[in-house]
Design goal:
Blueprint: H1 2-6, H2 9-14, H3 18-46, H4 48-65, H5 69-84
Length: about 80
């Protein structure tokens, strides 16, 4: 499994070492496990249907906002640079 991940086209394109690739994969699984605990707790407390609807809305919202991320980052850094200067 690790050899497949290391030799994936994404790792070659980003020039990731085997250690860096492992860190990316590990961070995904760690965050996935932590969020599963919270999702289970919210599901027990508020009901699975509400949690699924709200989670889908949040994921969709952040997916939509992803296209504006670089522009916001650049605007913020320009404003910060102008303020410091």
């Amino acid at each position: 499994m690790y050899e497949y991940c290391y030799h994936s086209p994404t790792n070659k394109e980003l020039n990731l070492s085997q250690t860096q690739s492992g860190m990316v994969i590990s961070s995904f699984w760690l965050s996935s496990g932590c969020m599963s605990l919270f999702a289970g707790w919210f599901s027990d407390k508020f009901g699975s249907r509400k949690v699924i609807v709200i989670a889908t809305f949040i994921i969709s919202l952040f997916s939509f906002l992803t296209r504006y991320g670089w522009g916001i980052c650049c605007d913020f850094s320009d404003a910060l640079y102008s303020w410091i200067r």
